[in-house]
TrEMBL record:
Ranges where the F-box domain occurs: 11-57
Name by which UniProt lists this protein: F-box domain-containing protein
Species this protein is from: Mytilus edulis (Blue mussel)
InterPro entries from the UniProt entry: F-box-like_dom_sf, F-box_dom, LRR_dom_sf
GO BP terms, alphabetized: SCF-dependent proteasomal ubiquitin-dependent protein catabolic process
One Gene Ontology term, aspect cellular component: SCF ubiquitin ligase complex
A Pfam entry, by short name: F-box-like
Highest taxon above the source species: Eukaryota
PANTHER family found in the cross-reference section: F-BOX PROTEIN YLR352W, PARTNER OF PAIRED, ISOFORM B-RELATED
Amino acid sequence: MEGTDKHEWSNILLEYLPSGVIFEICKHLTWQDIFHISQTCRRFNQLCDKATIWLQLKSLDFSKCMIPLDFKVLDVVKRCPQIEFLKLTNVVSSENARKFREEETTPADRFLLEVLRHCPSLYTMDLSMVELTDNSVNAICTKCEQLRSFTLIDNDFISNEGIVNLLSYLPLLSQLHIIRCTNVIPMIKHKDEGKVLALKDIRIESCELFKANVSTLLKSCVQLEHLCLIDNIVLQGFPNSIPNTEKSGMNTLKTLKLYSQPDMREVNFEKMEQLESLKVKQCPHLLHVNMWAPKLHCFQIAKCENLKSVNFYDVRLTEINLSGCENLAEIGVDSPVLKSIDISDCKSLTAHQFLIGINIKSCVDYINMGGCNKMNSAEIDNIIQEVYILAY
């Protein structure tokens, strides 16, 4: 801008802002952003070299580093002793590659221990590192007693015993995610018999999981609110044998997600008093869904082509979508607020079964029956007459 003097520029250029304002802006930046702005001019380089900026950082995420070398990651960590969130992904070791025995620490173990020495205030830890072992778990238990959330991804060496120790020695842990960990068949419980866990949010993905494992999980996590199970081979059903009088996660669970369960055959719940949302996807061998859940208001199902029966007792569903369930022959929904029903391409469902299955029809204003081959035009007309209100 020709004719503009330095004083006018100082009103619009970030470089001329007071140091206090720049420090305040940096509170909202990532560590990568701070490194980038430090390279723009001499003043920013000097400001970003001050400890004040780094001391106020609460989160370090190294997952977007192209080559996260351990000594460079550690250099950043040492600058930020107040961080509460740490995410490490495939950190590259500067140590010479060597074989190690199971009882020895790996380079990844030694790196993580050094990191933890400089992070006394961690609340959330997200680790995607293949070579971490139970030695790292022991270090976390010792150094991170205040940890609330722990995620472990793509690990080959941490064992069931390591997970149990983690849960037993971190009393404040409320969120646990275990994803693609080949050496773990998750036993979610306290090491001391009779003690329960504070976990409220659990995700287990791509791990072997048996019905007994889920039952143990529910009995141990008496405050459980959110459970997500994805791609767990050999899991054939969700346990329903826990007595209603026994305190368990069955009494507190609010959301349940069952995705890509190749061996699951049924989902049966006698009583789920707090369940609000059930989502089931890509369970090709699922045959039956039956539950009593007075607070259930969200049900989603997709790619469960062999499903034969769905029964919901005393629920609060406003809509139900069973489109594409070609083998569905039985439906039962007891909801006083049901408005929308999609049974398109349910080729095995008869009009009679549909009418006796929808107990309360007074609020229904939408029905999609396209592709229901077992219903003729007269039967469809009869369904329309049975419904109190029907809007097209």
